[in-house]
Amino acid sequence: xxxHVSEQQRGFSLLEAxxxxxxxxxxxxxxxxxxxxxxxxxxxxxxxxxxxxxxxxARATAIAHRCEVQIQFVGSNQMTxxxxxxxxxxxxxxxxxxxxxxxxxxxxxxxxxxxxxxxxNSGAIFFGGSSTPxxxxxxxxxxxxINGGNALLNGTLFLGIAGNSRTARAVSVLGAxxxxxxxxxxxxxxxx
Length: 192
Description:
Blueprint: H1 14-65, E1 68-74, E2 78-84, E3 94-97, E4 103-104, E5 125-127, E6 137-139, E7 145-147, E8 155-161, E9 164-174, E10 179-185, E11 190-191
Antiparallel strand pairs: 1-2, 1-6, 2-3, 4-8, 5-8, 6-7, 8-9, 9-10, 10-11
């Protein structure tokens, strides 16, 4: 038995195909336009993840190796981690550069991160109540974060990609516990 298919039921008309193609092109165009904001945010997130990873690793090393681990923020986009051993030869310091063009910076007009971790934002590297960070900052064997005078040190590190405030990122360190937290600016407020 053969099914009878009329000429009108065989496929799509030219008009239907054009409508479908135009809808696909409109949706694709919208996706491409939004893709431009995804790349800078990804680069900023990558830099923040590097900072988080290095700080958390330094704290874990200080606890596990029972030695102090010094943190230095160098230039506009680097940090150096140095283990301080009392005996033997320590490993060489590790210097990490951030990927994707992110630098230490505070965007004008952005508020500080939310309480209780709002230690100040008058400088990109804000520790110990000053936008000029102390020369010695380190994690101790119990995981706390201190300065060269062995005083607990709270602070926040701000970073982003110049000219794009939506790439603003922040990492805070709570001195008493050495807890490291991350924040991103969503255009209206800081989110954890």
